[in-house]
């Protein structure tokens, strides 16, 4: 079924329409939807128009019936994305498998390589920057990646540090501390400087603090 958050944003009837279309083995006309949902054709059509407007469903082929031709509808990729995904579970299983087969050190090395690979996508944004400007831009990149990050004065009074108030890999990092290697590698590669994980929100800190090593 559609996720609970999707139902709250779409409304129960629209979420049910998505579910009915998802389960069908072919695109469905409005007539079929109103019969399954047991609501009027006009009400069903209004929901269909709204879902199409929001990019969750799209027109498919026109079918010929005993009466007039009927327009059918199917889910878009955005519509399919409203249903639950278990990426976190997959990541948990995958990291656990890699660690059991290769060991913690090799897992850490792999995650560090992933951090560098991710950083490569943003190097153009920081290529001409240095000092505080560089730190501020790296914090902005982390924001783009889902971290609630900011560049703040370092507690030793020397320049800025990056402070992230959440961990986008929180559940993974809680079980596998090697996951933090990805963050450290990402930030180090972007800033071109060695980074110290001075505080970790998963390990009891109030935030994750990333400081330049002195």
Helix coverage percent of residues?
Answer: 40-55%
Strand order of the largest sheet: 4-5-7-6
Q: How is the CATH topology of the largest domain named? A: H-NOX domain
Average of pLDDT: 92
CATH architecture annotation of the largest domain: Alpha-Beta Complex
Low-pLDDT segments: 3-8
Q: What amount of the residues lies in strands?
A: 15-25%
- Helix segment tally: 11
Helix/strand order, N-terminal first: HHEHHEEHHHHHEEHHEE
How many β-strand runs?
Answer: 7
Structural class: alpha+beta
Number of domains: 2
The top-level CATH class of the largest domain is Alpha Beta
**What does the largest sheet look like?**
4 strands, antiparallel
Terminal-residue CA separation: 53 Å
CATH superfamily of the largest domain: H-NOX domain
Tell me the Rg in angstroms: 24 Å
Q: State the shape.
A: elongated
Brief descriptors of the model:
214 residues, H-NOX domain, elongated, alpha+beta, three-stranded antiparallel β-sheet, Arc Repressor Mutant, subunit A, 2 domains, four-stranded antiparallel β-sheet, 7 strands
């Amino acid at each position: 079924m559609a996720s609970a958050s999707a139902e709250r944003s779409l409304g129960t009837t629209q979420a049910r329409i998505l579910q009915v279309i998802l389960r069908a083995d072919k695109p469905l006309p409005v007539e079929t939807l109103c019969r399954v949902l047991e609501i009027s054709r006009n009400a069903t059509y209004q929901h269909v128009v709204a879902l199409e407007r929001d990019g969750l469903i799209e027109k498919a082929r026109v079918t010929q019936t005993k009466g007039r031709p009927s327009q059918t509808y199917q889910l878009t990729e955005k519509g399919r994305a409203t249903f639950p995904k278990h990426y976190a579970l997959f990541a948990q299983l995958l990291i656990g498998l890699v660690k059991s087969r290769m060991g913690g050190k090799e897992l850490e090395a792999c995650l560090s390589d992933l951090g560098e690979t991710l950083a490569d996508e943003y190097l153009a944004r920081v290529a001409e920057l240095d000092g505080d400007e560089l730190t501020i831009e790296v914090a902005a990149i982390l924001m783009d990646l889902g971290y609630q990050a900011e560049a703040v004065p370092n507690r030793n009074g020397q320049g800025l540090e990056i402070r992230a108030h959440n961990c986008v890999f929180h559940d993974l990092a809680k079980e596998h501390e090697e996951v933090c290697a990805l963050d450290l590698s990402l930030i180090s590669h972007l800033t071109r400087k060695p980074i110290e994980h001075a505080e970790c929100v998963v390990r009891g800190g109030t935030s994750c603090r990333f400081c330049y090593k002195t």
